[in-house]
Specification:
This protein is mainly α and 336 residues long. The chain folds into 2 domains: 165 residues, Glutaredoxin (3-Layer(aba) Sandwich); 153 residues, Up-down Bundle (Glutathione S-transferase Yfyf (Class Pi), Chain A, domain 2). Helix content is 38%, strand content 5%. Strand 3 and strand 4 form a beta hairpin.
Length: 336
């Protein structure tokens, strides 16, 4: 859902959507681990995610790189939402491990039943309804003890996991500090976050889901202008966006660029260039992909199925295959 750290303009959202602009909704659950009701304890918390969703991908990345896979349990929804034939409603996230993906002709092994509430619910909407909410988005951070939703804003969830990794039961021998205590570095990360969210993370959606040519064109230009800026930033030899260490800025950029060549280039009409055409960004994405836990935190099968399975004819493209299939290409920085 929305990203409060950017202060994205929500004014006149209905009218702007009617004119063809993509305006992201807001998240309604803003509790925090560390609050009196939600102490930082291992084994207490649960995540509901969809692996095709880039906002969920932020959270699964944080869970993995911070070594929280064993202490924070997780359920994975099917990448396509419910259809018109659904007895509740279309367009809902569904826990359906037996559902067949059109891309593979098989079930997806990452998909799970719902286990976090202990009630075996089918829809994320039902998790919200238990708290009197009509929301239905993912990710959801859930407290299994109180059976309450803690938070459904990805930007806040990743900061909670970072701040309380030790107390939550991190098993990582070495783990990054996503938002370091250094105020100058933190300010640099915040500035990068705002740029990346506005023009890249949300910018991809503004390009792909807006129905107004001028809105699309503006989002397209801003997206590639920022890619050029980031390419130049990395051209001094630094391994990560702020220097030698992987931080929250890298984590928040990765889900969009991971999707760009195999999905967004076509689906979001962002065909100005591939990430492979930016040598420094390509080597950066390969460097991040090589961090322990990163490769398993996402799935391009889910991404392809989720994005193209919602297109007008539900046909999922099979490529790209050159210079090699993705995500295997991310293991080859020499391709750029």
């Amino acid at each position: 859902m929305d990203d409060i750290s950017t202060g994205e303009d929500q004014s006149n959202a209905r009218a702007r959507r009617a004119k063809g602009e993509f305006v992201r909704g807001t998240s309604g659950f803003r509790h925090a681990i560390g609050d009196l009701d939600f102490p930082a304890e291992p084994g207490r918390y649960h995540l509901f995610v969809a692996l095709n969703c880039p906002w969920c991908h932020r959270v699964t990345l944080a869970r993995s790189v911070l070594g929280l896979q064993d202490s924070i349990t997780m359920d994975v929804a099917f990448p396509n939402r419910t259809g018109d034939e659904d007895p509740v409603a279309p367009g809902l996230w569904e826990f359906a491990p037996d559902r067949i993906a059109t891309l593979t002709g098989h079930t997806l092994p990452e998909c799970t039943p719902e286990t976090g509430t202990g009630r075996g619910l089918r829809l994320t909407k039902q998790i919200y309804q238990a708290e009197g909410s009509d929301e239905q988005s993912v990710p959801i951070l859930y407290d299994k003890i109180t059976q309450r939703i803690v938070n459904n804003e990805s930007a806040e969830i990743i900061r909670m996991l970072d701040a309380f990794a030790t107390e939550l039961g991190s098993t990582a021998a070495e783990r990054p500090r996503l938002l370091p205590d250094d105020p100058d570095l933190s300010n640099e990360i915040e500035a990068l976050n705002a740029l990346i969210y506005t023009t890249i993370n949300n910018g991809a959606y503004k390009a792909g889901f807006s129905s107004d040519q001028n809105v699309y064109a503006a989002a397209f230009r801003a997206y590639f202008e920022t890619l050029n800026t980031l390419e130049q930033r990395l051209s001094d030899g630094r391994p990560f966006l702020t220097g030698m260490a992987f931080t929250e800025a890298d984590l928040r950029l990765f889900p969009t660029l991971y999707r760009h060549d195999p999905v967004y280039y076509v689906r979001m009409k962002l065909n100005g260039a591939r990430i492979l055409d930016y040598p420094h960004l390509w080597r950066w994405i390969c460097r991040v992909y090589a961090i322990p836990g990163v490769a398993k935190a996402g799935s391009l099968v889910h991404c392809r199925q989720g994005y193209f399975g919602r297109s007008w004819n539900n046909v999922v493209p099979l490529g790209p295959n050159l210079p090699m299939p993705y995500p295997e290409a991310y293991e080859h920085p020499e391709l750029a």
